[in-house]
Structure formats: structure tokens, C-alpha cells
């Protein structure tokens, strides 16, 4: 598989460049998670970085590369979100199936 040297911005990895494996489309993953072990033996802390465009070309506005930006408020929880998935909160109760007496 191919890899690409990708810069990291913000957070503890600021200024570092790491080789990141590219997917089948030739792009790095949208999120990059780095587990940091706890020195006291507790649960590991997860650093989350989001993929953002590095720059755009002048004439066509094409993306010229990718970089990772630190995301301290990660709310995705590491799960994939599919468009057909159920929402996290239950919807409001639907109206009753009885016809309205004033209309009918």
C-alpha cells in the first residue's frame, strides 16, 4: 500500500510529519486516532485529528494535498455514521391514526 507524508497541526503532534497509509481512493483517512498510554496504567487517552485540505490550486480550486488538524472535542465516538442509521434520540410520538372529527 502507498503512504504519504502528512503534516499535523495543533495539539501534542503540532509540527510533526508522519507517513499515513492511503486508502483505495488515494486519500488518507478522514480521522486519525492516536492512542496515548496513561503513565499510571489507566485507560489510554485518544488524540483525534481530522483531515482538512492543505491548500487549493488557483485556477480550478482543486485540493493540493491534505493535513490533519487537532480536534479536542471529538463527538463521533469512533463510530461510522450512515445516512440510513437511526438517530441517537427517539423521535416524537406520531399523531394518532384517527381522522380529525372537525374535518370529516
Automatic annotation (TrEMBL):
Compositional bias of kind Pro residues: 88-97
Protein name: Uncharacterized protein
Species the sequence originates in: Streptomyces roseochromogenus subsp. oscitans DS 12.976
Span list, region Disordered: 1-42, 74-104
Domain of life per record: Bacteria
